[in-house]
């Protein structure tokens, strides 16, 4: 039986860099991955979707450019070309990541599914057949999330799509029904609408983007409505049936039933921890109330020598969080430093177009918590850069501490909203007040300069 100093399970956004750093620090390390190096982000998530979103944006721009006085005539979507480009990006990223692992001394890459068969022992069902049992002093779990498939009558009798399988379609759906209205639903919904699908989004809650402020969510709805995307809120799919190429769906909106037909169904109703194969009970690792691996602020699970990183430990499920978990674990385990994930400032960006960049708390959260705040709001139709470039969609918003002038949170729904919100995040990190940003000299006419105007609204 092979023994290691450290075993990393899951080659996600934490596990992939972590295994190399552990090995480079002198620990004999194994990385166990059941599918591909790079995990969700590289293979099924961020990179492939953003590559396809870029194609969708190009299609939108080609149509939209007429408003700028430039007509390119009819446009054609070459879906095979879009998929080839996406696949080539994924293969390059995955390949170079795998190569770096294979070239690291003291590190073994083992393809297979790991299951705990003892407190400090895993048995790997190898991808190429057979199995191997390994032991280690320390385990690092980075097994990620998987789509939730709601228990709806008939759902397993239809060829429903998930965020993974929709990227393998060989044709553009004629009429796509999307269950859920989170990031996955909105990014794919707008993307396929721009490729030519008719898109209907069904959300069972009373509005989309519940965690965002209502004015931001309303602005997103307006933008999507202009692209003929139908959004049905307070609505649930209660029954599915397949009839030839058509999927018949019974919907229920506030007690009223209706019958609709679609060609494709994407389930984007949330994601859950990928743990069913791991046998955590055997390792003595407890789960929290929501079914994620329970960790403390040092990312330690309830069993000694076991750590959990990334999405599987709960909290915001983003690549940059998983990557930061890796950075912190290295400081803790290799450099013997104190670490804590408490109070970590986590930004995020929804890559619909325009992007929704977010950081810190929302207005609704600040009010619920009784904070003394000022709220700055600026619609993009009064931003010089937006007017000049012909894209006035969206708005900017910042929540400011009324006493100190410090920024508590921001939302930027704009072309490059993810980049613009990062400027405000830097201000939050550096303790820069809104008055300093209001009076800062920024190049004209940039989006950054509009932050002067955003905070002038507080005067
Ligand atoms: C469609 C989509 C788009 C997204 N877009 C963005 C975005 O734009 N920006 C962003 O920040 N985040 C985005 N995310 C989220 C992001 O992909 C994840 O937060 C990120 O990948 C971090 O995941 P992770 O490191 O926790 O694990 P993952 O990347 O999910 O990796 C887990 C790995 O563990 C392996 N594994 C699981 N169980 C076992 C086992 N028993 N044995 C061996 N191996 C196992 C899996 O095969 C997988 O490779 C997106 C997600 C999706 C689905
Ligand atoms: N740009 C990004 O950073 C990005 C992009 C995509 C995904 N992600 C990550 O992936 C995670 C999962 O995304 P998601 O969109 O699947 O989940 P989500 O949890 O964000 O949204 C799911 C939505 O589906 C609704 N819902 C649940 N069951 C339903 C049902 N039966 N019928 C209708 N609606 C239903 C929920 O009310 C919720 O609004 C995100 O939270 C995020 O962390 C990030």
UniProtKB/TrEMBL annotation:
Keywords, alphabetical: FAD, Flavoprotein, Pyruvate
Domain FAD/NAD(P)-binding span(s) in chain numbering: 4-323
Residue intervals of the Pyridine nucleotide-disulphide oxidoreductase dimerisation domain: 346-453
Transmembrane segments: none
UniProt-listed InterPro entries: FAD/NAD-bd_sf (IPR036188), FAD/NAD-binding_dom (IPR023753), FAD/NAD-linked_Rdtase_dimer_sf (IPR016156), Pyr_nuc-diS_OxRdtase (IPR001100), Pyr_nucl-diS_OxRdtase_dimer (IPR004099)
Superkingdom: Bacteria
Cofactor dependency: FAD
PANTHER family the record matches: MERCURIC REDUCTASE (PTHR43014)
Family: Belongs to the class-I pyridine nucleotide-disulfide oxidoreductase family.
Identification of the protein by name: Pyruvate/2-oxoglutarate dehydrogenase complex dihydrolipoamide dehydrogenase (E3) component
Native species: Dyadobacter fermentans
